Amino acid sequence: MSPRPEEAAMRREVVKRIETVIKDLWPTADVQIFGSFSTGLYLPTSDIDLVVFGKWERPPLQLLEQALRKHNVAEPYSIKVLDKATVPIIKLTDQETEVKVDISFNVETGVKAARFIKEYMKKYSLLPYLILVLKQFLLQRDLNEVFTGGISSYSLILMAISFLQLHPRIDARRADENLGMLLIEFFELYGRNFNYLKTGIRIKNGGAYIAKEEIMKVMTNGYRPSMLCIEDPLLPGNDVGRSSYGAMQVKQVFDYAYIVLSHAVSPLARSYPNRDSESTLGRIIKVTQEVIDYRAWIKKKWGSKINLSPELDNRLKIRDPMALCNGEQQQNRDSEPSYNQHLALSLASTQQLSSGSSASSVSSLSSSDIESDTPPCTAPNVYQFSLQAPTQLMASLAPALPLPSGKPQSAPPRALIMATSNQV
């Protein structure tokens, strides 16, 4: 489910069309991409988040709405102006691609947040894999949005970072660590052992679980720590999870996933009647035929447009005051981990799983959440990695594992195979 080059090309075209309308209205306006598209942690159906910087006393929502209608950029009935929201936005669906877009004005907090996330993606090479699986898991249960009672992408990313920071025995900076075990232990921690009532999550200074009473001391405006209490690493006193009113429902589905996966990798799984036809990861994650067809359509239409012209790249480049110089950017690109690899991740027995995942046993503290995926940031990096299940995500236990090629591949007993490649 990871981003493909043609999907990034399609999204850049959507941004270009909207940017053209904005520039016609305000030539000096600065259009920036933020959210999951900027970090590369977006699913095929994820929204695009844009922020427009300019000098206005009030966000000119209606003026931009009229211009978008005039240029037929969006489906006519999809454009909505939410001027009463905490962050006023324009919502629309691109007419050609059916990609949903949210546009806000002068939201400045995102540059630091996106940079923060990208730094941790470099520090923990396994973080993108974990996030994409978890996002798909929550998406299919309608728990990936704050307004539906779920948790935002920003909250999920902070929870995953905290999990990797405080894991007692696994080094998430190593690409050869056991992704399958990490996923199960994440579900165990936040679905079973995390103390949502008393504890909160802190990311800064290496990460910690802290009592909610400590977090409340720095909170302002009479706020109290929420059920899912995540301390904002960039804005002291802000509880990122404060709007996630369905946090306990998220806890329940995480617990469900832990039970299903831990049973699937137990020795008893060899006697399952469908063990040869259903993947392990496929027991908790499904990809609809509609999404498969949509991705095939994107590949057919935009596959030849992967290499964008320099002019388009320059138009979409974010003017980030904190951006690194060209030399540093090139060095970072060279040092970015390659996601075009297959990771065979052996899982321990259920006895080892229960006793070894002490990260989940530590008294838990909760964290904070914001409403949008992530705040504004620089132009997106496209990471080429895919997690394959029945069709998109693949995990299996069988000693002889049938792969898409039709040839059985040997794998050790009770092994969870999570393959990452460009073929999905």
UniProtKB/TrEMBL annotation:
Residues covered by region (Disordered): 358-377
Gene3D superfamilies: 1.10.1410.10, Beta Polymerase, domain 2
Cofactors demanded by this protein: Mn(2+)
Record family assignment: Belongs to the DNA polymerase type-B-like family.
MF GO annotations: guanylyltransferase activity; metal ion binding; mRNA binding; poly(A) RNA polymerase activity
Residue ranges occupied by any Poly(A) RNA polymerase mitochondrial-like central palm domain in the UniProt entry: 3-121
GO cellular component, one term: nucleolus
Protein name per its UniProtKB record: Terminal nucleotidyltransferase 4A
Enzyme class: transferase
Cited function: Terminal nucleotidyltransferase that catalyzes preferentially the transfer of ATP and GTP on RNA 3' poly(A) tail creating a heterogeneous 3' poly(A) tail leading to mRNAs stabilization by protecting mRNAs from active deadenylation. Also functions as a catalytic subunit of a TRAMP-like complex which has a poly(A) RNA polymerase activity and is involved in a post-transcriptional quality control mechanism. Polyadenylation with short oligo(A) tails is required for the degradative activity of the exosome on several of its nuclear RNA substrates.
